[in-house]
Write a structure and sequence with these properties.
Radius of gyration: 20 Å
CATH class: Alpha Beta
CATH architecture: Alpha-Beta Barrel
Number of strands: 12
Order of helices and strands: EHEHEHEHHEHEHEHHEEEHHHHEE
Bound molecules: iron/sulfur cluster
Low-confidence stretches: 345-359
CATH topology: TIM Barrel
Strand content: 5-15%
Number of domains: 1
Largest sheet: 10 strands, mixed
Structural class: alpha/beta
Distance between the termini: 34 Å
Strand order of the largest sheet: 7-6-5-4-3-2-1-8-9-10
CATH superfamily: Aldolase class I
Shape: globular
Mean pLDDT: 89
Number of helices: 13
């Protein structure tokens, strides 16, 4: 890995099998493991290739990763290769205290759960399965007692947009490390979930800034890179010093240095974008990361169209390519969930890629 290359974040769908049928599942989870899943040996080879890229983060997800009996070996091998994966867990029949304790014994340090509402009445219609609120809270307590760091995912939608402060009241006593606030990309099962508007997204951004000021856990915004534009605008309005981009990476990590690996080894720009940049069975991960036409094109802000293409924040934001694809069918179209209107069509960018203000 060259020192000038960004270290990618990698999300790996270990399996699609899951015994829940969540309403908003974007990945098309299936009741049983697929015949084309990477084998245990291929999973080891995948870990070798991920380790070679020295990722800034590795998230192992599903489906339900516990559907694979080799998940413990996978975690153990990842740790021995110097990785520190986070594991996304669902409140399925596989999720027991013994499973969590065994994961911890195999080196796991961080787990991720979903809480989409402050009460079962709000959470379960978003999640789509009865009983998941209580089961998730129980599993979080197990994870806490096993000494694991806990992330909570929340998908913001019309049903819970007024419930965010109450969700904070629920997650605060759980001692979580990070709250990952997701914005909807309407693909797969999640097309049935009602989106909030672009104007409401701006209000949620402001609310998140207030929550960030007073809470002890970190907040990260997912699939809303225009949160960076929001934060930068606020800084620039106050004439504060140019912000440290490292902070923005951790707060809103969508950059083009991201790869999603499917259960069958397809490498994609996002879990929500079905186009494959290559398959690990035929090409190495580093070759795909550095040389895929798809990933290279997505990294170049000159390819953006419409409002995003002429936006003075395009080098640091660029909009959600996944949502552009899901809602317009064009990977390079404007992000429909951004309320910002660029001031000067075709003007010199006010914000240059990671170098600071240019005008
Ligand atoms: S118009 Fe596009 S590039 Fe500009 S802030 Fe909005 S989403 Fe980002």
């Amino acid at each position: 890995m060259s020192t000038s290359e960004p270290h990618p974040a990698v999300m790996w769908e270990l399996t699609r099998a899951c015994d829940l049928h969540c309403r908003g599942c974007p990945s098309g989870a299936e009741p049983r493991r697929g015949a084309n899943e990477l084998t245990t040996y291929e999973a080891y080879k995948t870990i070798d290739q991920i380790a070679e890229l020295e990722p800034r983060e590795l998230i192992i997800t599903g489906g339900d990763p516990l559907e694979r009996e080799d998940v413990y070996q996978v975690i153990d091998y990842a740790r021995r290769r110097g990785l520190d994966p986070a594991l996304v867990l669902s409140p399925t029949s596989q999720l027991t205290y013994d499973a969590i304790a065994r994961l911890e014994q195999n080196g796991l340090t961080r787990v991720v759960f979903s809480i989409d509402g402050s009460t079962p009445g709000i959470h379960q219609p978003v999640h789509g399965v009865a009983g998941t609120f209580a089961a998730t809270m129980r599993a979080i307590r197990w994870a806490e007692s096993a000494g694991l760091r806990i992330d909570v995912n929340t998908l913001v939608c019309a049903r819970n947009r007024d419930d965010l402060e109450s969700i904070v009241d629920v997650i605060r006593p759980l001692g979580i490390a990070r709250w990952n606030v997701h914005f909807l990309v309407p693909v797969g099962g999640s097309v049935v979930i009602e989106m909030i508007t672009a104007e409401e997204v701006e209000r949620v951004f402001a609310q998140l800034d207030e929550i960030r000021e007073r809470e002890n856990f970190a907040i990260r915004v997912i699939e809303a890179p225009h949160y960076r534009r929001f934060r930068l605008e606020r800084k620039l309005q106050k004439n504060l010093e140019w912000p440290d981009f490292a902070t923005y990476e951790s707060e809103s990590p969508e950059t083009n240095a991201f790869m999603y690996i499917s259960h069958a080894g397809d490498v994609r720009p996002s879990e929500f974008i079905p186009q494959s940049a290559g398959n690990l069975r035929y090409r190495s991960l580093s070759t795909i990361y550095r040389g895929s036409d798809l990933l290279v094109a997505l990294r170049d802000p000159a390819n953006l169209k419409g409002k995003c293409g002429r936006c003075d924040y395009r080098h640091v934001c660029g909009g959600s390519r996944a949502r552009a694809w899901a809602m317009t069918g064009d990977l390079f179209a404007s992000d429909p969930l951004c309320a910002y209107e660029p001031e000067h069509v075709g003007a010199t960018p006010r914000v240059d890629a990671r170098k600071g203000a240019t005008a």
